[in-house]
Write a structure and sequence with these properties.
The chain contains 9 helices and 19 strands. With about 375 residues, it is of the alpha+beta class.
């Protein structure tokens, strides 16, 4: 992996040099990890003029191999308590003879930015905007492998839950059980707070579990994700509690399933992000649910659960191969409930079989 990190840093350095900066300070945690491997919290990466340095407030935990930083980096552990690694890195840049330092202005606070200027007045600070985030969009096969394993863990945790007794249990209890199962099966932890929504709460995006108990006839919507070696994926499914779903539940589920399938099938290298959103959205629009739809159909995943690209009506840009995204249309009907179906897929060319589905739990409407 050391060579992989070195190539990533070289690509960022080339972008910085092209804009007139001889060094860069990377402070956003996901970006630091992308360029240097695992790093302690609050660590920053200095892409220096003479060497690259990972600046940490405390030593890394190296008991687990994949939690270690890239061995090719010089590790600078600060002495004392309460110092800022970003300020320390700026001073190291000055010591290397750097005159222009590119920083992640979209991540640094005003206070931190001011502290860097005061500690290293010779530096001319410039911005690198979202340069690292842009590099992160297309994943290599090692990254996709981590996402694939995370998806397998999430599928396994969800499958085990569906085999247990659900009636009478609370949304909060089910969410906690799912998160425990994720860790039991090898996840670093949940990719985001697990959502379990029942009855009138079902289908609501971002629902936080409550003490509402599962009842016969409820829609049950579950959205969870696993983090594996830092990479995050997600899956969402909707079920019915009881012996048989009502006609309106079948109709709504079939509609959302059709929208989700249209979105999945439109994923291809070169496809416009807004066209993927449109493919799923128009199925639901045509059925009269325009006002009940979420603001997006999907988004990228990786070291963060919500990355570029975003599949929205106003999205700019096109998809590339090896970009993992979610496709997650849904409809929420206030007071009644709703349906959400969410998969993580990797964009692949048709010659390679088309979109690779990572989350494989059945999308059949099951009565549990």
């Amino acid at each position: 992996m050391s060579e992989v990190y070195a190539v990533r840093r070289t690509r960022l350095r080339e972008r910085c040099n092209a804009s007139g900066s001889t060094a860069a300070l990377v402070s956003r945690p996901a970006n630091v990890r992308y360029l240097s491997g695992a790093a302690p919290g609050n660590a920053v990466l200095l892409l220096g003029r003479t060497e690259d340095v990972l600046v940490c407030a405390q030593p890394p935990d190296d008991r687990v191999p994949h939690n270690r930083p890239d061995e090719a980096l010089r590790l600078h552990v600060m002495t004392g308590i309460g110092g800022d690694p970003a300020v320390e890195a700026a001073a190291l840049a000055v010591a290397q003879g750097v005159d222009a330092l590119a920083v992640e202005e979209h991540h640094l606070t005003v206070t931190r930015h001011r502290a860097i200027r005061e500690a290293a007045p010779p530096l001319r600070l410039t911005g690198i905007a979202g340069a690292v985030e842009q590099l992160r969009v297309v994943k290599d096969e090692e990254e996709i492998s981590c996402l694939r394993i995370g998806a397998e863990i999430a599928d396994q945790a969800l499958g085990e839950l569906l085999e247990s007794i659900l009636v009478g249990r609370t949304e909060r209890h089910l969410a906690l059980e799912l998160e425990r199962r994720l860790v039991d099966h090898g996840a670093d932890g949940p990719a985001f707070p697990t959502s379990v929504a029942t009855g009138p709460n079902a289908g609501r995006p971002g629902h936080r579990p409550t003490d509402r108990r599962v009842e016969e006839g409820d829609f049950l919507s579950v959205c969870l994700g696993a983090t594996y070696r830092g990479y995050r994926c997600e899956i969402g499914r909707t079920f019915v509690i009881g012996t048989a779903p009502a006609d309106w539940q079948i109709e709504l589920y079939d509609l959302v399933f059709s929208a989700q399938r249209a979105g999945r099938e439109s994923l291809a290298p070169g496809a416009a992000c807004r066209d993927v959103d449109r493919a799923a959205r128009q199925v639901l629009d045509s059925a009269g649910y325009a006002e009940a739809l979420p603001v997006l159909t999907g988004h990228g995943v990786g070291l963060e659960i919500d990355e570029d690209p975003h599949l929205t009506p106003a999205a700019m840009g096109k998809l590339d191969a090896c970009v993992p995204v979610t496709v997650e249309p849904g409809v929420h009907l206030p007071g009644r409930g709703g349906v959400r179906i969410d998969d993580t897929l990797v964009v692949r060319p048709e010659a390679d079989g088309g979109p690779e589905l990572l989350t494989i739990t059945t999308k059949e409407l099951l009565a549990l």
